[in-house]
Write a structure and sequence with these properties.
This protein is an alpha/beta fold. The protein has helices at 3-9, 13-25, 35-43, 61-66, 70-88, 112-120, 122-132, 149-161, 207-214, 221-237, 251-254, 261-271, 290-300, 332-338, 342-357, 368-372, 392-404, 408-417, 430-439; strands spanning 51-58, 94-97, 103-110, 138-145, 175-184, 190-199, 246-249, 277-281, 305-310, 327-330, 361-364. The strands form two sheets. The protein has a seven-stranded mixed beta barrel with strand order 5-6-7-8-9-10-11, surrounded by four helices. The chain has a four-stranded antiparallel beta sheet with strand order 2-3-1-4, with helices on both faces. Helix 17 packs antiparallel against helix 18 (408-417). The radius of gyration is 22 Å and the shape is globular.
Length: 441
């Protein structure tokens, strides 16, 4: 059965269209509006006297280190931050979004007087986060003319991500190259090494989140930084040649939004070293087509394309056979949770099985993944069977979607678009779908 045939046999197109639109404007982890979906509303109908307040909060490094995994760890931490920002901004017309792992952002368009009130209440938010968000949460804020909302958002996120709110200059003289091994997720064989090029003021543990935050919006100087990184890439990877394939994560170069992403994608196509595998965060493909088109062109030229952080829940919903990809690197948070939590374990298995179905190599940060994949992916009691009987229609949709090769995220959209609900009466999550898929194994 092809994907198109499956969709014709599924729910009515109008329901699917509604669900797909919702999926495109809603963060799949928290269920809240995503930043690309909400930013246009920040400037619509604004008066010159309105102020945009942006408050960004993030789980601190020590708390992150203690989280058990993705579903019951990092995702819960994000939802907690978002809920606390909601409570803090209660009474004013603000919105809370989650633009990156372990991060939540409050945006409010107000009068000058209301903006001053929000700023005066920031100490209360600090106390609130200290009590509920774990040890040493990070906090940054920015205010400015609402008509210049991209610049205001940039200031807040840059202050949260980096000292002094900007990358060190010149970038190529103040960077660190981190190198980590990658293993075949099914066999445990070492396949390649992943190299990251990041500011020396940011450790390798924090580099992915910094890249996610800076991908929201960027001022012009970051384009010069990206050019400098591209020029240096061949130089810092050349001495590592001869030690097996090198996966270079180009997310730091492509991290931009709006009209600035297109020239960065062109930059990657023009200057990408031929001797490296090209890695891109899977979440970057869930948006404008610039990155996808660049990867398609690079792959046609012979480059090996790898999606990093695959399985985080924020990856593009398209199945892997619809993308220009040769391999995926599994989300490290999902890997961590797969050893202890049933939901993460089922989602981890579903992601790897989806890759294998489409002939895409699945890479892991640890050899232990291969041992884990030899075990049963889910216990029978973890499968969401309805009390008193089986929801045949829902299970048929989920089963057929797996047979058709749909991704975990797209299957979740499909079953919710059909109006099906779990035994508890709530919308299906990717963990519900993953548990059913895993039960078939």
């Amino acid at each position: 059965m092809t994907n198109d045939e499956h969709r014709r046999d599924g729910p009515p197109v109008d329901l699917l269209q509604v669900e797909r639109r919702r999926s495109g404007t809603t963060d799949p982890v928290t269920g809240r509006p995503n930043l690309p979906g909400i930013t246009p509303s920040c400037t619509a109908g604004m008066g010159e006297d309105q102020v945009l307040t942006v408050v960004a909060a993030a789980t601190g490094p020590r708390t992150l280190d203690a989280l058990p995994g993705r579903g019951d760890g990092l995702d819960d931490a994000e939802r907690l931050l978002a809920d606390q920002l909601d409570v803090w901004g209660d009474g004013l017309p603000g919105s809370v979004v989650s633009p990156a792992d372990g991060t939540a952002v409050y945006l409010a368009r107000t009068t000058h007087a209301e903006a001053r009130t929000l700023r005066a209440h920031l100490p209360l938010l600090v106390e609130q986060l200290d009590r509920g968000a774990g040890r040493s949460p990070l906090l940054a804020e920015a205010q400015g003319a609402a008509a210049e909302s991209p610049a205001v958002v940039t200031r807040a996120l840059s202050r949260l991500a980096l000292p002094q709110g900007r990358l060190p200059q010149p970038h190529t003289e103040a960077t660190t190259v981190a190198r980590t091994p990658l293993f075949d997720a099914w066999t445990g064989t070492r396949v390649a090494s992943q190299v990251r090029h990041h500011p020396s003021t940011v450790g390798p543990r924090d580099a992915p989140r910094v890249e996610q935050l800076l991908s929201i919006t960027r001022p012009a100087p970051f384009l010069d930084t990206a050019r400098a990184v591209m020029a240096a890439t061949a130089r810092f990877t050349d001495p590592l040649r001869g030690h097996g394939p090198l996966l270079w994560d180009a997310t730091c170069v492509l991290a931009a939004a709006g009209p600035q992403r297109a020239p960065l994608a062109e930059l990657l196509v023009e200057h990408c070293p031929a001797h490296v595998w090209v890695g891109v965060a899977a979440s970057l493909l869930d948006g404008p087509p610039d990155v996808l088109e660049a990867l398609t062109l690079l792959r046609a030229r012979g480059s090996t394309i790898v999606l990093t952080g695959y399985g985080s829940g924020r990856e593009t919903p398209e199945a892997l056979d619809e993308l220009p990809v040769d391999a995926v690197v599994v989300d490290p948070w999902l890997e961590r949770g797969a050893t202890t939590a049933s939901g993460d374990r089922a989602a981890h298995w579903a992601v790897l099985e989806h890759a294998r179905r489409h002939g895409v190599t699945a890479l892991s940060h640890t050899r232990a993944t291969a041992t884990l994949m030899q075990q049963a992916p889910v216990d029978a009691q973890d499968v969401p069977w309805p009390v008193g009987g089986v929801d045949v229609a829902a299970l048929a949709l989920v089963s057929d979607a797996r047979t058709a090769g749909l991704s975990l995220r797209e299957t979740t959209v499909l079953v919710n678009g059909a109006g099906r609900r779990t035994p508890a009466g709530r919308r299906w999550s990717r963990y519900d779908v993953a548990r059913v898929w895993a039960s078939f194994a």
